[in-house]
Amino acid sequence: MTVCDNQKDDHIRFIQITDPHLFKEPIGELLGINTQASFQQVLTEIQRSGTNYQFVLATGDLVQDGSEEGYQRFCQLIKPLQKPVYWIPGNHDFQPNMVKVFNENQQTVRSDKHLLLGEKWQIVLLDSQVSGVPHGELSQYQLEWLDEKLQEYQERYSLIVLHHHLLSTNSAWLDQHNLRNANELAQILAKYENVRGILHGHIHQQVDAEWNGYRLMCTPSTSVQFKPDHNAFTLDDLQPAWREVSLLENGEIETQIHRIQQAQFLPNMHEAGY
Question: Taking the CB of the first residue and of the last residue of the chain, which one, N or C, has fewer CB atoms within 10 A?
Answer without folding.
Answer: N
